[in-house]
Amino acid sequence: MATVKVITLGCRFNFYESEIMKSKIASHCSDNEFVVVNTCSVTHEAERQSRQAVRKVIKENKSAKIIVTGCAAKTSQRYFEDLDGIFKVLQNNGKNDITEHIDLLDQKCAKYGENAFIETNSPLFFTGKARAFLQIQNGCDNFCTYCVVPFTRGRSKSLPVDIVLKNISQFVTSGFDEIVLSGIDIASYGRDLGEDINLCSIIKKILKNSPVRRLRISSIDPSGINDELLGLLVSENRVMPHLHLSIQSGDNSVLRVMRRKYNREKIIEVCNRILEQRSDVVFGADLIAGFPAETDNMFANTLKLVDEANLSLLHVFPYSPRSRTIAANMVQIPREVILERAKVLRQKTKEAKLKLFQHLLNKTTFGVIEKLKNEYIYGKTHSFLPFKIHNPPNEIVKNNVYHIKIVGFDEGTFIAELI
Hints:
Elements: E1 3-8, H1 12-28, E2 33-39, H2 44-60, E3 65-70, H3 72-75, H4 77-81, E4 86-89, H5 98-104, E5 132-138, H6 149-153, E6 157-158, H7 161-173, E7 178-183, H8 199-209, E8 214-217, H9 227-235, E9 242-248, H10 252-258, H11 264-277, E10 282-289, H12 296-308, E11 311-318, H13 335-360, E12 364-373, E13 376-381, E14 386-390, E15 401-410, E16 413-418
Parallel strand pairs: 1-2, 2-3, 3-4, 5-7, 7-8, 9-10, 10-11, 14-16
Antiparallel strand pairs: 5-6, 12-13, 12-15, 13-14, 15-16
Helix pairs in contact: 7-8, 12-13
């Protein structure tokens, strides 16, 4: 069996695909050492870090076959191909057939259809993990003015319903109690499959046709949260109480220039409606600081949105121009202003998490144990909040669900006790 090391940068989607590529190479190849660098290019800084990571891998792995893939493999393809020591530069739509690319050796990469799905029908990919990920959608049709994803991953494509249900069944049969539905633009699921197929319909089919205990939705565009999805979230206990929203800005003028399909009022209304009906829901969000032409007042609206929409788990990105995007040709804000705004937003992130802790102090919830390390166990609550328990009893079982009480807070992690 081959020795495989995978280095992953960027989104949760990349981490999901990395697990599968690692398993495929290990089971397919023998007597070789491989290093796969799954890159990101969502921001200029992410692409710089991807290039840096690849150079470091080349320096430290002289005898390995090095494969570069991910979004930066598209935007910086020529750069990686010109580096000495690279075995393959593989586009996102070739990840599914990674072993065939390895077999091709020095031949040109075969052409594959856009948005090819990583095969997800082997639960072995997630052995030992607390949850399994199912990629039900890939690519994006939105063409937001700041984003290169439609160019690096292609147009939106959905996994057929029967394949989704087959994979869910295999995961459940293999003992996975929690499954995460993931996608680049998961709200667009089904638009290419037929009139009556959408994200809500596939969730309903999963809940009806499988005994899955916990179903989680990955990052979603706020415009995709309609009344039907809201109803599912608040009425179905098997749908986990956590949403990560791809918001980007809390100012309507900025959202319009970004070509987002919602406004700040929509975000606030949706979040508050959900909380009124299911109070344990926790909201995460992606936010961009320093988008072109963002004024101090516009940025202040983003800060206010954190409180108004009860956002708690924030991913902050300082804006950086990406080639092939409209925003790259707009008037740019000075870099020092962008970085300062990102710093302010990150401080707001800490405040929002502390505010959530104060709300949850001495309250009970449920959590999945993910890792046992030294005198602590670590896990995630049903609302996807990280927690740790000191000196747990010996009978604690990894990947099981336990009733816990929140009793403290330590550098972003909730401290809990078993009940």
